[in-house]
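Thread amino acids onto this structure.
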């Protein structure tokens, strides 16, 4: 009996020892990870361990546009960029200056990526449809080259540019003329004499703009240039023609790829004209230098907004200005090149023999970079000799905001001008910006700035300049200057049926005017105002 008790006691002691050992092992396994985690936290908190994001995002990387209004952006700024996966901004107060394209461009160059180096901009064999852009410009090469190559990237093969002022200087035209598919037409005495004989002067659709200064004069000049461009586009075998200014970029959203060619290829054969509603740039700083690579926020066209959104946020979107947009709101258009075409002002095309069948695109748009630089106030003022009075500016400018801007630029001090510019043009209220972005009135568009930044980083623009110096007058793709006036005259004569004396031409014009409805040219128009929309809804 005593031996039995002794055996029982030793087995119980052994079981108890095993249990204690197991508990100690379990406690050790529990405490060890906790101790390691605490140690790692202490090291990171004291700066002894590098945040892995630091190896991905350089310390001087700029913040993404729009992040300053978001919870992510505010958290990154408050933490100073340490310990946050979203802290990609530097300590500089102007971190948004370079925008998204700066990030894309710098990362591309730092890793040796040249997105467009080796890209063939000069092959146009078997390209369909063939798209031509025409425009009248006095801009600098710094503005024209990015504009031109961006549109080459999205599928435009030919450009017919009517140049004067800065754009007509040899340093600019020598580069442009060396680029395949670019035709330069100078504003010469011969060109003016040719256009003075245009049939347009004997028709009624543009007569409301004749013999008026500034914007009205420009509108007539653009229409006369477009008339010549139609003839040249037909001679070059173009399928589509678009009139575009050098402060406008086509945004081919909605296509299966980011391509204007693909967008127009999908247009039904019975459509003569495609309307692109325009979006207007909404700058967030008053020190923009390069709009194409610094501006990413745009105000949507009312055609792309639900009516209740447009109505409900009209006051906030207008910000005390005369209209929803600062400038025009009726978009631009692409027309299928065909017989009997004519311009219908700078925004539309028409046909002498029929009313064009047109469609309006639901996603694609024209991005209009208007008043993006503070200097735009004075440059517009310097181009016009009108008096800065409310009555006289009506003779010179079609749109109300242009009139106000001209008066301010002509009468105010530079500081007063800058204050006015910040109040009426610059979107400085981040809360309002965020609200309108969430509601869809404002939108962020990065594709153009990324493309242009990629072109710049790839050295395309520098190559164009150096190539022009090495191979002057290497332009191919459109006919030479000497044949332009002859072809335009011949085309007009053919359309008029009779090319004899002035009386026979006048008779032919009267016949054609009976065929053509002669609706007035479409001027640059502001988007519908609140009262206009209310009246149309009630009628």
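Threaded sequence (539 positions):
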């Amino acid at each position: 009996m005593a031996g039995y008790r002794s055996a029982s006691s030793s087995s119980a002691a052994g079981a108890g020892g095993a249990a204690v050992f197991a508990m100690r092992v379990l406690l050790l396994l529990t405490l060890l990870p906790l101790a390691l985690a605490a140690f790692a936290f202490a090291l990171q908190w004291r700066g002894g361990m590098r945040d892995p994001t630091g190896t991905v995002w350089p310390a001087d990387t700029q913040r993404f546009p729009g992040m300053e209004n978001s919870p992510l952006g505010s958290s990154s700024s408050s933490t100073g960029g340490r310990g946050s996966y979203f802290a990609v901004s530097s300590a500089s107060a102007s971190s948004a200056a370079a925008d998204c394209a700066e990030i894309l461009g710098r990362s591309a160059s730092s890793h040796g990526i040249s997105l467009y180096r080796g890209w063939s901009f000069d092959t146009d064999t078997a390209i369909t449809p063939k798209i031509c852009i025409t425009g009248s410009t006095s801009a600098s090469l710094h503005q024209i080259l990015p504009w031109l190559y961006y549109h080459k990237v999205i599928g435009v093969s030919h450009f017919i540019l009517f140049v004067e002022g800065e754009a007509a200087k040899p340093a600019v035209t020598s580069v442009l003329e060396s680029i395949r598919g670019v035709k330069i037409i100078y504003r010469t005495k011969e060109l003016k004499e040719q256009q003075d004989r245009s049939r347009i002067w004997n028709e009624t659709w543009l007569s409301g703009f004749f013999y008026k200064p500034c914007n009205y004069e420009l509108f007539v000049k653009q229409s006369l240039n477009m008339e010549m461009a139609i003839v040249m586009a037909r001679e070059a075998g173009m399928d589509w023609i678009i009139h575009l200014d050098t402060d406008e970029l086509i945004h081919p959203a909605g296509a299966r790829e980011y391509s204007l060619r693909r967008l127009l290829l999908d247009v039904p054969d019975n459509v003569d004209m495609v309307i692109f509603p325009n979006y207007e740039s909404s700058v967030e700083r008053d020190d923009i230098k390069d709009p194409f690579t610094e501006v990413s926020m745009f105000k949507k066209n009312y055609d792309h907004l639900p009516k209740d959104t447009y109505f409900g946020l009209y006051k906030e979107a207008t910000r005390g200005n005369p209209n929803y947009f600062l400038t025009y709101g009726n978009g631009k258009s692409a027309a299928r090149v065909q017989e009997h075409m004519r311009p219908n002002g700078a925004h539309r095309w028409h046909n002498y023999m029929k009313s064009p069948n047109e469609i309006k695109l639901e996603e694609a748009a024209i991005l209009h970079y208007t008043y993006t630089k503070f200097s735009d106030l004075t440059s517009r003022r310097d181009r016009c000799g009108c008096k800065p009075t409310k009555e006289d500016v009506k003779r010179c400018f079609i749109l109300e905001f242009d009139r106000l801007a001209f008066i301010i630029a002509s009468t105010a001090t530079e500081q007063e001008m800058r204050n006015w510019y910040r109040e009426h043009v610059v979107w400085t209220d981040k809360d309002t910006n965020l609200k309108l972005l969430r509601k869809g009135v404002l939108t962020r568009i990065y594709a153009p700035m990324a493309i242009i930044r990629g072109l710049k980083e790839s050295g395309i623009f520098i190559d164009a300049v150096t190539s022009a110096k090495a191979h002057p007058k290497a332009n191919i793709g459109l006919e030479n200057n000497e044949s332009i006036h002859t072809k335009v005259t011949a085309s007009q004569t053919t359309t008029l049926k009779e090319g004899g004396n002035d009386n026979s031409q006048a008779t032919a014009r009267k016949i054609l005017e009976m065929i053509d409805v002669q609706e007035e040219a479409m001027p640059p128009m502001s988007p519908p105002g609140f009262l206009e929309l209310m009246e149309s809804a009630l009628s």
